[in-house]
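Researcher: Please translate sequence to structure tokens.
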Amino acid sequence: MQRIVIMAKAPRPGLAKTRLARAPQVGADGAAQLARAFALDTVAACAELGDVVTCVAYAPPDARAEFAELAPRCELVAQAEGDLGARLSSAIERAFQAGATAVLTLGTDTPHVGAARLRDAFARLADADVVLGPAADGGYWLIGLRSPRPELFESIAWSTPSVLASTLRQAERAQLRVTLLDELADIDEAPELFELARGAALDPRLCPATSAALKALRLI
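Model: Translation complete:
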């Protein structure tokens, strides 16, 4: 059984996409609107994979009702406590305990991910232990595993440009076979959002909810 875990924060003003909220064209309410759209498009991309089970690991703990509306066909579970590494490791461990043979984990910062990239990630796990989707900021937008690997989430300086490089070093120490997907931009800052709005990545068929939110904010 293949499973996808989406790590998601409740799309609330002042909580979600706070760096995007600093842009005058966006603001706190607009950032929450975009966060909701990002989540919808990510869930929709996962749903295209058919038999794959999708779980939303949500934060904060009282956000279950919001995600029950946003992702009614997904399993829902509150994120564990701790830093990002601890939360990722816990969510992945839980997925394997549920019977998964391969697990992809991603956030909602790449609404333009599309189902094809997710299918490719699962396909690559046939010959690799780890699949990573490099992010333009030095992190990664996806990690896929064939078994729990908590060491990949330890001693990582999260939210820094060294995340991907540090993860690759951890994988090398553990003698794991790694394959890399194509690089995508996490949509965390206003310039990334505006580039998404301008570029070919904003295909309304690929991320329709995000396209609608940008239009509502008059950003496209």
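Researcher: Any highlights?
Model: The chain has one domain: 2-216.
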